[in-house]
Design goal:
The chain has 324 residues and is α/β, with parallel strands linked by helices. The chain contains ten helices and twelve strands.
Length: 324
């Protein structure tokens, strides 16, 4: 009997020691587990841009995502597809999912305000990218291209190349970036009374809308020889319509973005010029400022990323295989 009792005691103490060891190992394992599912202090962020069918926003988003995921954090991206109501709901949904910050490229600079105000009330950091709202106090950080200067550069180059012209403007008036670009272009063109703005067309920044709008003007017999589009996507739609109607020759097309396709068109002397943006730089600035906020470092409230004109004179300095 004594032998049996001693054996049971030995088993008990061995088992107890094993349990203690397992408990210690579990604690150590927990303390060293940095996976997304186990890490205690993982940060979760949201993003909703105007539309994800524009490669420009894909570049911004992937630049942000690369940094976020390299730190073991999470980025949830939503596509409003140019629907301001949908984007508003996405912001509310992201807040409900527990995000700490949201990157936003507003579809409509007015309709988005209530959702942004709600986010601020909930302590959510708001980072505006590419385009902004008129009440800058509602954002924790704004990172945009120098949109006014983008319009100025296109107009200045046009004035160098032509003595006179009749201009169609393709715009997206619910976004401040578009309004700034158009304002910069128009303010500069007004210096020369030999240029006339024939019409301004809202195409929501989309190729599939720009093309039929251009076709309508061609069918109407509108007299023009210059097109300024607030992005290269619209410029490509315009050029596709002009090509179908054999009107490309003699029409000067200018855009904003520096998209690979637009640079190819400039190289082939089909498109006159584009004011190049730097989406990777926009994304990197935005995510850097976010982590500055989280980690208690100084934050730049507003960052304007420089733009550069790309034309036949300097096209060989830029790659046509990707964004700059």
């Amino acid at each position: 009997m004594k032998f049996l009792i001693d054996r049971m005691r030995a088993v008990f103490y061995t088992t107890a020691a094993a349990l203690v060891l397992l408990s210690v190992l579990a604690v150590l394992d927990k303390n060293n587990d940095f996976s997304l599912t186990q890490r205690e202090n993982v940060h979760k962020f949201g993003a909703t841009y105007m539309t994800m069918n524009n490669p420009f926003f894909e570049v911004i988003n992937e630049t942000i995502r690369a940094t976020v995921e390299s730190k073991g954090d999470i980025l949830i991206t939503r596509d409003p597809a140019l629907d301001a109501v949908r984007q508003t709901q996405q912001i509310y949904d992201l807040i409900d999912e527990g995000v700490e910050a949201i990157f936003i490229a507003p579809v409509d600079f007015e309709k988005i305000i209530p959702a942004i105000e709600y986010g601020r009330e909930k302590g959510i950091k708001i980072i505006l990218v590419d385009t902004e709202i008129y009440d800058e106090d509602l954002a924790d950080c704004i990172v945009v291209s120098d949109n006014y200067h983008a319009g100025v550069l296109c107009a200045e180059y046009l004035l160098q190349k032509k003595a006179e012209g009749r201009i169609l403007i393709f715009e997206h008036p619910t976004t401040k970036s578009s309004n700034d670009r158009v304002e910069g272009f128009v303010d500069t063109i007004k210096r020369n009374g030999s240029f006339e703005i024939v019409d301004r067309l809202d195409y929501a920044g989309q190729l599939e809308i720009a093309m039929p709008r251009m076709i309508d003007k061609l069918k109407e017999g509108v007299d023009f020889d210059v097109v300024f589009s607030i992005n290269d996507v619209g410029a490509l739609g315009v050029m596709a319509a002009l090509k179908d109607y054999e009107r490309l020759d003699g029409i000067s097309v200018l855009g904003v973005d520096g998209a690979p396709e637009a640079k190819s068109m400039i190289k082939e002397k089909i498109m006159l010029a584009t004011s190049a943006q730097y989406p990777s730089e926009i994304g990197q600035n935005a995510v850097t400022q976010l982590y500055n906020m989280i980690e208690g470092r100084p934050v730049e409230k507003k960052i304007k990323v420089s733009v550069n004109l790309i034309s036949e004179e300097n096209i060989n300095e830029f790659s046509t295989k990707g964004w700059q």
